[in-house]
Specification:
CATH superfamily of the domain at 3-113 and 306-318: NAD(P)-binding Rossmann-like Domain
CATH topology of the domain at 3-113 and 306-318: Rossmann fold
CATH architecture of the domain at 3-113 and 306-318: 3-Layer(aba) Sandwich
CATH class of the domain at 3-113 and 306-318: Alpha Beta
Strand content: 15-25%
Strand order of the largest sheet: 8-9-7-10-15-14-11
Structural class: alpha/beta
Order of helices and strands: EHEHEHEEHEHEHEHEEHEHEEEEH
Distance between the termini: 20 Å
Helix content: 25-40%
Length: about 325
C-alpha cells in the first residue's frame, strides 16, 4: 500500500515541484484538502494528523503553526521553511552531509529541509573543516547567484512581468547587504564554523539554477593545502553518493581555460546545468602557483536546493528507495 502524503502549501513554487516529482513515485499517494473545505481549519488539521507524512511548504510562522497542529506521534514531517534548520530536535535534511546524517534522517519524524544556498556552501566546506584543511575559525566568504524562482511568487512576478508596471529590467541583482541573511545560522551550524561567513547572494535573470562559490587564500591556511588536497577531501567525503559528484582535476582544468565563441566568452560553468535534477556537482579550481582556490557548487535551487531534497528526505523517512521519484 502506498504511503499517504499531504503537501501543506502545494500551490507554491516548491510545493508544485514536489507534487510533480511525487506524481511519478509509485510508493506514495498525495492527498489534498477538498476544495470546498480549503479554508476549513478542521479539515487541514484532519489531514495533518491523518496521513503518513506531511511536507510543509509554508512561510516560517505558518510552518510553526502547522507543526503545532500535529498531535499524532506517527506522522512524519519534512519542513521546507527556515523555521527548524538549527533546531536540536529536528534532523537536518542533507543526507550526504556526513556519514551519519542519512541514518539520522531515517530515524527522525521531524526533518528540516536545507536552504538552497546552504546546500552548496555546506557541501563544499563541511568536508574541508572535518578533514582539518580549513580551521573552524577561519574567515570565509561565499558568493552565489540563483535564478529568480528562489525568491518565490513576488520575485518571479517581478522578473517575468517585464518591463512594467510591476516588473524589472534588472539583468542581475545583488542583495543581502544587511549581512544578516536568514541562511547564515544553518551555514555556520552545519559546517562547524566558529563564525558565520560573509555571504554575498545575488539573483540573475533566469528562472532556476544556481552557482555557490567559496574563494580561498590557500597560503593563509595553517597547513597551506594545495587545490588537489581540497579535491581529494571532497571526493573522499562523497564517494559512492548518487546525487553529489566531485568534478575531476582534468575537468576543472579544461573548464578553467579561457575560451572564446562567436559572441565572445563562452561560460565555463552554467548555473542551469543541473536544472530538473536532484544532483549537485562540486568543482575545485586552483591558481597556477597553488596559492589560491575557488570552490564552486552547481545545483538546481528548486531541485537539490528544495523539492528534490524534500522528496529524498521523504523517501528516507518512509523507508522507500532513496532515489524514487527523482
Amino acid at each position: 500500500m502506498a504511503h499517504t502524503v499531504f503537501i501543506d502549501g502545494e500551490a507554491g513554487t516548491t510545493g508544485l515541484q514536489i507534487r510533480e516529482r511525487l506524481a511519478r513515485h509509485d510508493g506514495v499517494e498525495v492527498v489534498s484538502i477538498d476544495p470546498a473545505r480549503r479554508k476549513d481549519a478542521d479539515a487541514r488539521a484532519e489531514l495533518l494528523n491523518g496521513v503518513d507524512a506531511v511536507v510543509l511548504c509554508l512561510p516560517d510562522d505558518a510552518a510553526r503553526e502547522a507543526v503545532g497542529m500535529i498531535r499524532s506521534n506517527t506522522v512524519k514531517v519534512v519542513d521546507a521553511s527556515t523555521a527548524y534548520r538549527v533546531a536540536p530536535d529536528w534532523a537536518y535534511g542533507f543526507a550526504e552531509m556526513d556519514r551519519g546524517q542519512r541514518d539520522a534522517i531515517r530515524r527522525s519524524t521531524r526533518v528540516s529541509n536545507p536552504g538552497c544556498y546552504p546546500t552548496g556552501f555546506i557541501g563544499l566546506v563541511k568536508p574541508l573543516v572535518a578533514a582539518g584543511l580549513v580551521p573552524a575559525d577561519f574567515p570565509l566568504t561565499v558568493n552565489a547567484v540563483s535564478g529568480y524562482s528562489g525568491g518565490g511568487k513576488g520575485l518571479i512576478g517581478e522578473f517575468e512581468d517585464r518591463p512594467a508596471p510591476a516588473g524589472t529590467n534588472d539583468a542581475f541583482r545583488a542583495y543581502g547587504y544587511s549581512l544578516a541573511h536568514k541562511h547564515l545560522p544553518e551555514m555556520r551550524t552545519h559546517t562547524g564554523l566558529a563564525h558565520a561567513p560573509v555571504f554575498a547572494p545575488s539573483v540573475g535573470r533566469y528562472a532556476q539554477g544556481m552557482l555557490v562559490e567559496v574563494p580561498l587564500q590557500l597560503w593563509a591556511l595553517p597547513g597551506k593545502p594545495a587545490p588537489a588536497d581540497l579535491r581529494r577531501a571532497l571526493a573522499a567525503a562523497y564517494a559512492g553518493e548518487t546525487f553529489v559528484e566531485v568534478a575531476s582535476e582534468a575537468e576543472c582544468a579544461e573548464l578553467a581555460k579561457t575560451r572564446a565563441g562567436a559572441a565572445g566568452y563562452v561560460a565555463a560553468l552554467d548555473p542551469q546545468a543541473l536544472n530538473g535534477t536532484n544532483r549537485m556537482k562540486l568543482f575545485v579550481f586552483g591558481s597556477a602557483d597553488g596559492s589560491q582556490a575557488r570552490l564552486v557548487a552547481i545545483l538546481d535551487n528548486l531541485g537539490k536546493g528544495a523539492s528534490g531534497a524534500a522528496v529524498q528526505n521523504l523517501n528516507l523517512m518512509l523507508g522507500l528507495p532513496e532515489a524514487a521519484g527523482l
